[in-house]
Amino acid sequence: MLCLVACSDTAFCRIDANAPVEQGWASFAYSLDKDGPLLPCRIWNGAGETFLRLDNATALALAGGASILMHNEPADLSIDDKIARHFDDHKNLSEFADRSLDFVGGPGFHFGVTGLWYGLAAANKDDLNRERAWTMMTALSITGVTTLALKAAVDNRTPNDKPWAWPSGHTASSFTVASVLDEFYGPWVGIPAYGMAGLVGYRMMETGDHWASDVLFGGVLGWIVGHTVAGKHKQLEVAGFEVVPYFGDSGASGIALVRQF
């Protein structure tokens, strides 16, 4: 099933939140009523566009193959086992850092902050940030569903003997966030976000919550989903002005540069 009518390539599943309602709750309710039903469609189409691309599929296959090699070598000789034993002997994170990274790297935190971002933008009739937040929600949803499906299919144990190890959901979600932010705001935001995502992955290995192979594949998955989804839905801007289609009353058409002040 392809939601081509509701979510065409040209429309990007977007709606105009600037309806004749007041800012605040009315604007938020209107936007959510229009955006909400389109989210499953955006997730479906976004997943197809992500995983059916040859370059993305190749990168994921290579990351999956590397994960298998890292994890399935003979016992006590695998890369995963060596890294896990290294972290058993070398703990660098304080308890506060451990708990903080576990919290801010969690998918629940990412969905919560994204929902707040969307709500504030919708209430203020800020279509640009409303669409960016909805794109982040789409990317996080694709990553989350994919991660859960892979965890259920593989169902291996973590170093500390917890179920559903591969891939790391915290790492995948964190790299999704970093990739979307990098697409929207460039390296000044993207690089620190990647740094934070890397720390989350490091924390997963140091605490024994995940093997290195779980973190590797999770990072690649999040990077691919985030860049593919946000790269499609991000606004084209010139000198701070949004580039939008223009259709005049006389039938003329072209592009217009729009900026909110």
Number of strands: 3
Tally of domains: 1
CATH class, please? Answer: Mainly Alpha
Q: How many strands, which pairing sense, and closed or not: the largest β-sheet?
A: 3 strands, antiparallel
User: Helical amount among residues, as a percent range?
Assistant: 55-70%
The amount of beta strand, in percent, is 5-15%
Instruction: Report the mean per-residue pLDDT as an integer.
Output: 85
Describe the protein's architecture and organization.
The chain is mainly alpha-helical and 261 residues long. The protein has a single domain (50-234), classed as Vanadium-containing Chloroperoxidase, domain 1 (Up-down Bundle). It is built from ten helices and three strands. It has a three-stranded antiparallel β-sheet with strand order 1-2-3, with no helix packed on it. Strand 1 and strand 2 (241-247) form a beta hairpin. The longest helix is centred in the middle third of the chain and has 28 residues, at 127-154. It is globular, with a radius of gyration of 21 Å. The model is unreliable at 4-15, 236-240, 243-247 and 251-255 (pLDDT under 50).
Properties at a glance:
261 residues, mainly alpha, Vanadium-containing Chloroperoxidase, domain 1, 64% helix, 6% strand
Could you write a compact summary of the structure shown?
By secondary structure, this protein is mainly α. The chain has helices spanning 25-35, 39-51, 54-71, 79-89, 95-104, 107-123, 127-154, 169-185, 187-206, 212-233; strands spanning 237-238, 241-247, 253-258. It contains ten helices and three strands.
